[in-house]
Write a structure and sequence with these properties.
With 179 residues, this protein is α+β, with helices and mostly antiparallel strands. Helices cover 26% and strands 36% of the residues. The model has no long low-confidence stretch (mean pLDDT 94).
Amino acid sequence: MPIMTTSLPKINYKEVKRWYLEMTREPVDLKPVLPDHTQIRLFKGDCKEYRILNKLVGGDLGWVDRQLMCDEDLSLIISHPKVKIHVLYTADEQAGFAELDSRTEDEVHMEYFGLTPKARGKGLGKAFLYWAITEAWKSKPRKLLLNTCEIDDPKALPMYLKAGFQIVEERFEKQAIIV
């Protein structure tokens, strides 16, 4: 009987500029108004379904960390009660997600935030970001953190800054790239 093997993707690394941002006060002027045809639901899937969602949203932007993570490690994250993955739907189709991780005391980390390529450029990003920020502050953290890098959507960093995040660190890091 032949032995079945799973081929792992080939990985290269690229030096990218990464910005670390934080928000230390709950914004009072954000108005998260999502269009009527949208819904937000909590993700309740397994590792395979999460990877599909993650790739759907960030595959074209180089989101590979969760694609490369073993199931055991990924499951510990996505099933943790202090990790909430909010999926944006338009007309019953996944349009994006925001992953809010509050496992660190007094902090919420927006580990992932993004829209599918099909949903980008339609005014959903700002409204969904404002919704996610509002949701994150419901737990009364001391600060909300996120990071982005130069291979992410070019509109991401300006949108985060406009929403009230401040850059606290910039550095160059090696980013895994699936080839």
